[in-house]
Amino acid sequence: MPKLDVAEPKKKKLWPRILLILSVVGPGIIAGTADNDAGGIATYSVAGAQYGYHLIWVLFLITFVLAITQEMGARLGIVSGKGLSALIRENFPFKATFFIILLSFVANWANVLAEFAGISAVANIYGIPNWLFVLSSAGLISWLVISGNFKNIQKIFLTSSALYLAYVVAGFMTHPDWSAAVKSIVVPSWVPTHDFLFMAIALIGTTVTIWGQFFIQSYFAEKGVRTQDLNLARADVYLGSFWTNFVAFFIIVATAGTLYANGITITDAADAARALEPFAGVMAKHLFAWGLYNASMLGAGVVTIATAYSLTEAFGWEGKVNSGFAESSAFYKIFLFCIFSTALIVLIPNFPIISVLIASQALNTFILPILFFFLLRLLNRKDIMGAHRNGLALNIAGWVSIAGLSILNLSYFIYMIVSIFR
Amino acid sequence: MPYFSHLINSQVNDSADVMIGRLEDVLIKVKPGDYSALEYIIIKQRHHKKRIIIPYDAVENFSNEEVSLRTLFSKINFLESEPAGYVRLNRDVMDQQIVDVAGARVVRVNDLRIGDFEGKLCVLGIDVSFKGLLRRLSVSSLDFFDFFKVNLIDWRKAQPVEGVLKLDSVSRDLTKLHPADIANIIEDLSVKQGSNLVLSLDKNMAARVFEEIDPEIQKSLIGQLSPEHAARISERMSIDELVDLIQSLPEHQSKQLLDYVEQERMKKIKKLLSYEDDTAGGLMTTEFLAGLPDDTVSGTIEKIRHLSESFRSANYIYVIDEKSKYKGVISFRRLIMADGDEILKDVMKKSVHLPLLHPNQSIKSVAHLMTKYDLNSVAVVDDENKFLGVVTVDDVMRVLVPNA
């Protein structure tokens, strides 16, 4: 049978290049912003309120770790054309695959629970009946994902990413001490307490996530980015990592300049929205509240899609975001299960959501290093990556990131256990 | 009869019951339409890095607990290196994706069924069921009531995805499928694998398959293909499908695609692009069979004989005069029944008696008209009765039932 011949690629001009960049942009920014989900915003708000600018330098470091790990995921997805769970299934023992995918599922599920807790908190701020707001939000997300096609979903996600500007605006409205804030980016400072370490680890844990790793790879694999355009994808990922922490910076600045300066402690993002009002005006409160809602919705959508993807891929229950309900029912069943089981649990009065979230955070810390171990092994495989294998520098950076994460996570884990039994 | 997951890692003993090592993999040869016999086994020796490869003939007994050989270990002739052209069951087939040719879908191999076929131990089937997953986890005993059923795909009806892509030509079984079924398979595959599969098809088939693919996945595939490859496929696509594709692409990609279109086709494309999507003008194709009122029947039939294959859904000849005015239509049936010397205008159904469409009519009214008059295709004309194109029933169906 005659194969189609390959001709020499034409010389690229500038304008098509720019358009090409725009067409590749998306996954990195979406994954990056979705990292600032309900849990993320709560962590940043509390970090700013409790420690002022002291934690900002940690953010600066996280940006690099996030950029490195996300770039690796994107590259693996583009070169292999497959998602992370498919590659793990094909290249590691089945029992190991099952173990890691199942644990990831549990951790991701708990993450979705956090998103709905965020949505419920927004309902409380405005005095809207909880069940009404939570269930209609769950319905809205399901409708968007099931009815919308890939392109529309991406547009909505990108718009949502832009809405995070609300936090930047809120940051400005609190009139912070900019010189001190900027200085704190590069000058490390330390408060020698348990809680400070705890908070630093929480910052990392909410930014570098399991689902983020699955999401970025599947999305790039699915998008059909060519290997030639790897650099564009990199730009997207780096931009996404920057944008995430840029927004995080402003959240910390907003609560640091007001709540920390006035010695007000808060425990979650909804608290932050309420507490901001007397200092930064009613607009700041609304911006924070709606920022939280937007973040929770984006997180719920992205995390569930990533979860459903990783499960269907690993176990061969084929399904794609764009192949319609009947074609990939397993995908949608898992998706709907995650959305509605968490939405309903949030509505149970006195359900110990905080405990579940802490447990899931512990699980996250446990899985992440294993997942990165798989990731690095795959990135060094010649038969998969060819010329795009990890170089020595990237391998070192990768292992150092993993080691650093593991040590911090492990100490967090130990801290958790110790604090439970104390 | 055993499953492969039971065999793998089982102990290998020689004829004196001395343990040699453990079974690491099995080599087979894939022949289209045949069960694959086990040809060589790879043994991982204890305390040795080196694997040994021996022909399956040397195996006396193959069971869940152990593999026993016919001779003493010292007398075995093992291969120096892995023979070329073989596939490893554990590495290359287990846990990989396969194309279930009969079901036109892509599934993942959970386990393999091994059994006797014509006196040889062969791979007979592929387990794609949940039960297979439980077996792999060694917990199938938990399924007391046999709630989950084993679902086997005949080995002869399966095509490894990676195998498809490594071979220069796709298995004949696969290309014999209907383009819509191949399209379904491509939709199941990752974009990269899918685009490789498209490229392995011949040009006409590639174009027909491409037309059947979901528009969103079409877009991803175009992004993955080089502009030259994309152009080669689009060259053979029917013009209305191509226009739909061009409209859905981002500007730089559609421009790239249009760069390769020849002038004659370009004119038609530009015309079609000027109509709204969901109107008769947007739905219609401008590729149709036309004849002049004074052409003879035999001449027209001769013309159809030499027609390119790309006119696929043609069942009618449209009679159009020199000024492009629509005069009438003749079905193939009527054309064949007619006398060879007759001229078209005497055989045709006159356009004045036929339902017609205008380019800006909505899809709803198009569907309504076609249903009411039981039409497979309708001509589209402008206010001056100038012939513009044809809307066929499948163009309408595709919009009304997008996910089929």
Automatic annotation (TrEMBL), chain A:
Top-level taxon: Bacteria
UniProt GO MF annotations: cadmium ion transmembrane transporter activity; manganese ion transmembrane transporter activity
Tagged with keyword Transport: yes
Xref: InterPro entries: NRAMP_fam
Membrane topology: Multi-pass membrane protein
Transmembrane segments: 14-31, 51-71, 92-110, 116-144, 156-176, 196-216, 237-261, 287-309, 330-348, 354-376, 396-421
Compartment(s): Membrane
GO BP annotation list: iron ion transmembrane transport
One Pfam family linked to the record: Nramp
Keyword vocabulary terms for this entry: Membrane, Transmembrane, Transmembrane helix, Transport
GO CC annotations on file: plasma membrane
PANTHER family xref list: NATURAL RESISTANCE-ASSOCIATED MACROPHAGE PROTEIN 2 (PTHR11706:SF33), SOLUTE CARRIER PROTEIN FAMILY 11 MEMBER (PTHR11706)
Name this protein carries in UniProt: Mn transporter
TrEMBL record, chain B:
One Pfam family recorded for the sequence: CBS
Annotated InterPro entries: CBS_dom, CBS_dom_sf, Mg_transptr_MgtE_intracell_dom, MgtE_N_sf, MgtE_transporter
GO MF: magnesium ion transmembrane transporter activity
Ranges of residues in domain CBS: 284-347, 348-404
GO CC list: membrane
CDD domains: CBS_pair_Mg_transporter
Keyword Transcription regulation: no
Transmembrane stretches, start-end: none
PROSITE patterns given in the database record: CBS (PS51371)
Record keywords, A-Z: CBS domain
UniProt-recorded name of the protein: CBS domain-containing protein
Protein's organism: Candidatus Magasanikbacteria bacterium RIFOXYD2_FULL_36_9
